[in-house]
Design a protein that fits this description.
single chain; 7-stranded mixed β-sheet; GMP Synthetase, Chain A, domain 3; Rossmann fold; alpha/beta
């Protein structure tokens, strides 16, 4: 704010003023931000913004050149850069200097294999040190990185990687989850066989003690070891690439068709992440940043960018509740985590399980808790402040794979309001539209962004003319990014997310966000989780509610009545479901998000075209059987 006032004449005595300047003067803001964040350019830009009135079509920092990996590896000292832990207790630590050395070795190996600018590297990896090293090595050469976690299986990974024709596949022999060793070599062999353009498969020996006999007669073609790849000591060199050079290919969930391949640029991703880390998270060199994520979720990409701020990254691989429900809080205490990132589902589950992390673990260094993946209920705010830490900064954040960043997030200058996301991000012209495309100062509607921002996708892979890209985000309101979230702007200036727009319930013409219904239902002590969909009936829509109950409980008429009464009192009679059905599990994407559209499709007899995108597709059949068997 001080820089904006002194150097740009901005009128910004508070955050609202700063945000207003950032969206009305985008070239001045993003240019000033690049200087503030010490973005390392190899060549200066001709200007900050070209064609700024076009969305899509705006170009950021045209003529500029930089290297993404070089910006993340700006520190080269003995302070820890990476601390890795897994659920079995293994631990590894790399200093910034050691990380630079490891990246140099991997980059030398990639060069020997002929990897260069624009080539795709596919990673089928857990959240491990080698994943970070390989990503930095690939992007140092100007290659494009794309990753998924090994629990996707051959079909799920193939649906993604086959679209981008990678030259290299990086993988592990296996991984461990919830106490079980899982050998993935047969899956890797099948995947490699279906990716004919591969030059090599780089195998990382990850699962200690894995027997060769366990894989039977599996042969992985063109395989080389990680040790052979990184055998040569070589100085690290960085290829200068344009600001909008492709950096990452991420994927939509793919539950209603083939996953979309979303291409993100190097400069836009870097600048956006630096903004969110340095300003909205107040990240510093002394911080230890942790986010529970896999390599198949954009939060892994967001986490790794923390290196550009000089922070220490804490990586974890395994189940969040193994050997017990306190595993992640124990990790935070033992490693001195200062910024703890997790999901709303995890915090709600902790509360239901009666966990008391603040009492049971030393969280003295913890200063911030981040939550994303789904809306954070007001009761979860209470839980964090009562059972985790009273003076922590709790920030519910929301954005997505589409923008590899956030529209709504935390703010160290503003108070935390129970149940709300604090603010729109700097430079993000977030507005709430009603169904006619009119902006609302308060109330519920569609979250849109009216102006360009640097982390907009470059497009979809193999979608040269934008035939798929344009309607995905600009089809509803031409020239305006429609994000697909049903959101409320509150009187305090904060935001409440009520669910995905395409999952909004509409009984009797009244729009109901699923998140608000879940908050009410899950306040019933017997209910662990819930999922609601609309069923077409007689020209209208009725609400069906599926619930997962605590172990040993059954859904009888008394409990149904209790759930209905709670919903009626908490919300309105319109929110009360026509049917309440019990299931053992709810279908989710591999990133943990409820697959509401897939449930709605299967209940209407429609095909769910890509079940491989679900972590537990068997839950769909269970819901269908429960629906067909009736219930009240």
């Amino acid at each position: 704010m001080e820089r904006a006032r002194l150097r740009h004449g901005a009128v910004c005595s508070d955050y609202a003023g700063l945000h207003q300047w950032s969206v009305t003067q985008p070239a001045a803001f993003w240019g000033a931000l690049a200087t503030f964040c010490d973005l390392r350019f190899r060549r200066a830009a001709r200007q900050v913004l070209e064609h700024g009135g076009q969305m899509p079509g705006a170009r950021w920092f045209p003529g500029a050149e930089l290297n993404f990996a070089e910006n993340l590896l700006r520190c080269c000292d003995s302070r820890p850069a990476l601390i890795w832990r897994d659920e079995s207790g293994r631990r590894r630590e790399l200093s910034h200097a050691q990380l630079v050395d490891e990246v140099g070795r991997a980059a030398a190996g990639f060069r020997r294999l002929g990897l260069g600018r624009g080539d795709r590297v596919a990673a089928f990896l857990p959240n491990c040190v080698e994943a970070v090293v390989a990503m930095l090595a690939a992007t140092s050469l100007g290659a494009i990185w794309s990753s998924s976690s090994p629990d996707f299986g051959a079909a799920g990974a193939h649906d993604r990687f086959a679209q981008i024709s990678p030259r290299l596949l990086l993988t592990v022999d296996g991984y461990r989850y919830a106490g079980k060793a899982i050998d993935v070599r047969p899956v890797v062999a099948e995947l490699a066989d279906k990716l004919p353009g591969l030059d090599a498969v780089v195998m990382i020996p990850y699962l200690a003690g894995l027997s060769d006999a366990a894989a039977g007669s599996v042969t992985i073609p063109r395989a080389i070891s990680w040790q052979a790849l990184t055998a040569d000591d070589a100085p690290l060199e960085f290829a200068a690439t344009p600001f909008d050079h492709p950096l990452y290919i991420l994927y939509s969930s793919g539950t209603t068709g083939a996953p979309k391949c979303i291409v993100h640029g190097a400069g836009g991703t870097l600048l956006q992440h630096l903004k969110e880390h340095l300003l909205h998270t107040d990240l510093r060199r002394s911080d230890r940043l942790f986010y529970f994520t896999t390599c198949g979720w954009m939060m892994w990409n967001w986490l790794v960018s923390g290196l550009a701020s000089g922070a220490t990254l804490v990586l974890y691989d395994g189940s969040p509740s193994f050997p017990d429900a306190g595993a992640l809080w124990r990790l935070a205490a033992e490693e001195g985590v200062t910024v703890f990132g997790t999901s709303a589902r995890y915090l709600a589950g902790n509360a239901k399980a009666g966990l008391h992390p603040g009492r049971d673990f030393d969280l003295q260094r913890l200063r911030m808790v981040l939550s994303t993946g789904s809306p954070l209920a007001p009761e979860s705010f209470d839980y964090v402040y009562q059972r985790v830490k009273a003076d922590v900064h709790l920030a519910s954040i929301s954005g997505g794979t589409d923008i590899i960043s956030c529209f709504l997030l935390g703010n160290p200058l503003l108070p935390v309001q129970r149940g709300e996301l604090q603010c729109a991000g700097l430079g993000m012209a977030v507005v709430i539209y009603d169904e006619h495309g009119q902006a609302l100062s308060e109330g519920r509607g569609e979250l849109v962004c009216e102006r360009p921002f640097p982390s907009m996708p470059l497009g979809f892979w193999n979608d040269v003319d934008g035939r798929l890209y344009h309607p995905a985000y600009f089809g509803r309101f031409p020239g305006v990014w429609a994000h697909g979230d049903h959101v409320e702007r509150t009187r305090s200036g904060g935001f409440i997310i009520h669910g995905r727009s395409d999952a909004v319930l509409n009984p009797g013409g009244v729009r109901i966000g699923t998140a608000e219904l879940y908050r009410a239902v899950e306040a019933v002590p017997e209910v662990l989780e819930s999922l609601a969909v609309g069923e077409r009936a007689g020209g209208d829509e009725r609400v069906l509610l599926f619930v997962v109950l605590r172990a040993g409980l059954g859904l009888d008429e008394a409990l149904r009545a209790k759930i209905r009464l709670t919903i009626r009192h908490t919300l309105t009679p319109r929110h009360v479901p026509a049917k309440i059905l019990q299931v053992a599990d709810l279908p989710r994407t591999r990133n943990g998000k409820l697959a509401e559209l897939a449930v709605r499709a299967i209940l209407h007899g429609e095909a769910v075209s890509n079940r491989a995108a679900l972590a537990n597709p068997e839950a769909l059949e269970q819901m269908r059987r429960s629906f067909e068997s009736g219930g009240g």
